[in-house]
Amino acid sequence: MTIRNYFRLIIENKHGAQAGWFWRPWLWLIRLMYESSVNLRASLYAVGFCRSKKLSIPAVSVGNITWGGVGKTPLTLYLSRFLLKEHKVPLILTRGYNADEVREYQANLAQAVIGVGKNRYEIAKRLLKKQKADIAILDDGFQHWQLHRDLNLVVINALNPFGNGTLIPTGILREPLTSLKRAHMIIFNDVNLIDRKNFETLRDQVKQLVPTAEIIEAQREPIFFYQAKSGGRIDVDRMRGRRVTTFSGVGTPRSFQLVLSKLGIKTIRNFEFSDHHAFTARELKEINEVCESSQSDSIITTEKDFFRRRKLITQIVDPLILRVYVRITVGEEILKDRIRKLFS
């Protein structure tokens, strides 16, 4: 078990975190310090002591307020494809904490400009001197106060929107819920994976917090599977009834499992690792062995996991990769019109 997973078990009050009783008081103390720093930073920008820098092109932030995956990368891909269809070149700015997102962008968006680094303003300025781009998209940009955003999109995973409602490290919130007031649009992802009444309660809760924001609904749409080594595609309908072994290291592994379940795929064995986990040869060999002993038909993983350790995963496991797109089910034209206004 990784240190990150250990503390996540403590945060979520789950079994398996030995001596959790010892760490919780310290985590609460750290939370108070973290919350004070978050509030201080917001205040410095609010009163004008610190100022955000503005690019020569419009900037859109795709962000969230929680620790863990909500679907920012698929949404960034969706927005970039839309812009390219509109004959506009997106400039994707990512801090590059993890190489999997960068590789995923490079593999799927050959025509986009991609900038990686901590100081996104300087990176964007440097790239714009060399290459043409029409709109900047900040991947995980909601907390990046240094750069001015013309449109703030906040993604909320409907399966686990706010955890226990407290900030890191006693909860999964990166900012207080009141910070949602900075959002221009709230995009609920995975809305098809929870009960509709539960979603409507969540939607109304958020609407009370930020009544001026547009509400968008989205879900992950399975497109096809492809073999890691050959690249050969398999239609999702052909996988119905298959018994599989799965592995993933993503922020919301439950979403991955529910998507497979809705496709009629039965998971016999499942390996879950921490978000952005760097798989080792030993782990991948174990996955292979379990697949064989459980008589699974295939091994399946996510595209993000595949790009993280592409060569090693291909050599040892050669799994099926699930390609998913984001599909906007409610408010798509509202979102597109808002983007169009930025370059009209």
TrEMBL record:
> In the UniProt record, which is one GO cellular component term?
membrane
Q: Broadest EC class?
A: transferase
Question: What residues does ATP bind to?
Answer: T66, W67, G68, G69, V70, G71, K72, T73
For this UniProt record, give its keywords in alphabetical order, as a comma-separated list. Answer: ATP-binding, Kinase, Lipid A biosynthesis, Lipid biosynthesis, Lipid metabolism, Nucleotide-binding, Transferase
Which molecular-function annotations from GO does this UniProt entry contain? ATP binding; lipid-A 4'-kinase activity
Pfam families the UniProt entry points to: LpxK
What pathway is this protein said to act in by its record?
Answer: Glycolipid biosynthesis; lipid IV(A) biosynthesis; lipid IV(A) from (3R)-3-hydroxytetradecanoyl-[acyl-carrier-protein] and UDP-N-acetyl-alpha-D-glucosamine: step 6/6
**Gene Ontology BP terms:** lipid A biosynthetic process
Presence of the UniProt keyword Ribonucleoprotein in the record: no
Q: What reaction does this catalyse?
A: a lipid A disaccharide + ATP = a lipid IVA + ADP + H(+)
Out of the domains of life, which is the source?
Bacteria
Q: What is its EC number?
A: 2.7.1.130
Q: Which InterPro entries match?
A: LpxK, P-loop_NTPase
Q: Main role?
A: Transfers the gamma-phosphate of ATP to the 4'-position of a tetraacyldisaccharide 1-phosphate intermediate (termed DS-1-P) to form tetraacyldisaccharide 1,4'-bis-phosphate (lipid IVA).
Q: Which family does it belong to?
A: Belongs to the LpxK family.
Q: Which NCBIfam families match?
A: lpxK
Record-linked PANTHER family: TETRAACYLDISACCHARIDE 4'-KINASE, TETRAACYLDISACCHARIDE 4'-KINASE, MITOCHONDRIAL-RELATED
Designated name of the protein: Tetraacyldisaccharide 4'-kinase
Native organism is: Candidatus Abzuiibacterium crystallinum
